[in-house]
Amino acid sequence: MNDQSNSSVLIYDTTLRDGSQGEGVSFTVTAKMRVAEKLDQFGIDYIEGGWPGSNPRDMAFFEKASELDLKHAKLASFGSTRRANIAVNEDAQIQLLLDASTPVVTIFGKSWLLHVTEVIRTTPEENLAMIEDSVRYLKEEGKEVIYDAEHFYDGYLDNPEYALSTLEAAERGGADFLVLCETNGGKLVPQVAAITETVVERFPSTRVGVHCHNDVGVGVAVSLAGMEAGAVMVQGTMNGYGERNGNANLTTIIPNLSLKMDREMNCRPNLAKLRDLSLFVDDATNLRPDIRAPYVGSASFAHKGGVHADAASKADRSYEHIDPKMVGNSTRVLVSDMSGRSSIMMKAKEMGVDVDSRSPEMKTFLEELKKLEFRGYEYEAADASFDLLLRRFLQGSKAPFEVLRYHVGIARDEADGESNSEATVKLRVGDRVNHTVAEGNGPVSALDQALRKALEKDFPAIAEVRLIDFKVRILESNLGTDAITRVHVESTDGNNTWGTVGVSDNVIEASWEALVDAVEYKLTSQSGENVPEELA
Questions:
Q1: How many helices (H) and strands (E) does the chain have?
Q2: 10-285 and 402-524 in the same fold
Q3: How far apart are the C-alpha atoms of 400 and 369, rounded to whole Å?
Q4: In this structure, are residues 387 and 398 in contact, taking their beta carbons and an 8 Å threshold?
Q5: pLDDT tens digits along 1-42
């Protein structure tokens, strides 16, 4: 096996093409432009923008791509070899690749005789000519050409010599890279490693890459195996987007290559920006981040068990395989009924709360926390509610307002079928009593509006807060309508995001509790700057 322990790796990103084929993934043209810029800033070497002519969105992207000011990355258009029995210079799809005006063109061809004879229905000899003609023509037009050998590993296992002959055809045409595609995503590490090594040894003059999918959950592993076997280019997508179970995930591959395999790559100096890049791409597709994604997920360095938290507080590396900051992440402590004193201490420190671990209040607080968890409270996604609880219990903190009464009603006009909700809120701020009423499209909306209205004169910062997520979970559903309801609310002020929780056998009461915590957290986290003088 080739010694590649310190060789440079090229990262080829196909998020904007292959990734967009994943269920629920969709990029606007503007989003594709922004993602391309971010990938370039991170240090990605190749960015595959799409398939010209396959859809209006990709066509519009390539028309605007000239506006991109890429500092490092090369933009690639993607397509197939010429069709059977057509001259390459007469093939409309080949011409569209040239019209895209990208410096790099990636084309795929058939490696598996099953596809040659049953899918494109041509002869093995014509397939080889299609590959060689297409690569040579694009090279003569001044393009850097990357040849993707589709279904290569399946083709090799079916007929090794024919699969290798397709790569020879691409090499004769002048391909700059021969990329072995594990298109079906079903191969395991030993197969990919052995076949890739064979190809690397067979083609010493042409650089080899790998393009893997995740259908059996080993997309990253087989990609890394391909790199260990001598490949120098790895293709994948940000956050593992892609058809079926997705493509090999670059947010996992890149740190593994850099931190675990000591491979050099252009993006290595920017590794601390990896989590930000991952979140940016999720935001561009309006998808929620995978909290359990290796390296970049919010749960990647989260500790819940008391023993784990205690060990991590004494020696980070005891339960963290790297320093989270290396990939832009951070240690988190999850508070639950599994928490011990060390967990609470770490969480308090994380939140900037000074707590004496030896105080009797700490023991009492732990007992209270476990009781609350038993009743249905859950603070893993409700850091703001936990922060308030901690400050109230251990520091005697008071809310900047006192709720006196609230009421909500729902009315339905049977004539037109429309319904509306109206809420009243009465609370005290200092010596004043504020009594407001508001309408909403539902009871929670009405309560939210009435609460804001009652506070906005004394606390202008309330105007910045908006609810961005609202989740209801029924606990012990066997109790039917008497079941306990847990409500999680996620709020933001444009700069920060926080979660709160409420629990009750009445969904309105649970929602109200979470709403009040969300507002109180915003006000108390302002360090008094928005609190009236008589309350400061």
A1: 17, 16
A2: no
A3: 23
A4: no
A5: 444 444 689 999 999 999 999 998 989 999 999 999 999 999
Tokens of 433: 């009593």
Report, as an integer, the average pLDDT of 42-54: 93
CA-wise closest residue to 496 among 464, 530, 527: 464
Q: CB–CB of 227/260 below 8 Å? A: no
- Name the CATH superfamily for 402-524: Alpha-isopropylmalate synthase LeuA, regulatory domain (3.30.160.270)
**Mean pLDDT comparison of 53-62, 445-454, 478-487, highest-scoring range:** 445-454
- Residue 214: burial class (beta carbons within 10 Å; 0-12, 13-18, 19+): buried
Task: Please report, for the chain, the start and end positions of each structural domain, with discontinuous segments joined by +.
Answer: 10-285, 302-375, 402-524
CA dist., res. 224 & res. 186, Å (int): 15
Q: What are phi and psi of 75, to 5 degrees?
A: -85, 135
3-state DSSP call for residue 241? coil
Rounded Cα–Cα distance for residues 14 and 241 (Å) = 9
Q: Which two tokens stand for residue 222?
A: 């087989």
Structural tokens at position 230:
């001598």
CATH of 10-285, one of 3.20.20.70, 3.40.718.10, 1.10.10.10, 3.40.50.300: 3.20.20.70
Look at residue 413 and give its three-state secondary structure: strand
Residue spans of beta strands (DSSP E) within 300-442: 302-303, 332-333, 402-413, 418-429, 432-440
Q: Are strands 466-475 and 484-492 parallel, antiparallel or unpaired?
A: antiparallel
H/E stretch holding 467 reads strand 466-475
Nearest to 40 by CA among 63, 69, 19: 69
Residues 318 and 311 sit within 8 Å (Cβ to Cβ):
yes
Model's pTM, two decimal places? 0.72
Dist CA 234 CA 208 (whole Å): 9
Pairing mode, strands 432-440 and 418-429? antiparallel
User: How far is the C-alpha of 382 from the C-alpha of 335, rounded, in Å?
Assistant: 9
Element (H, E) at 234: strand 233-236
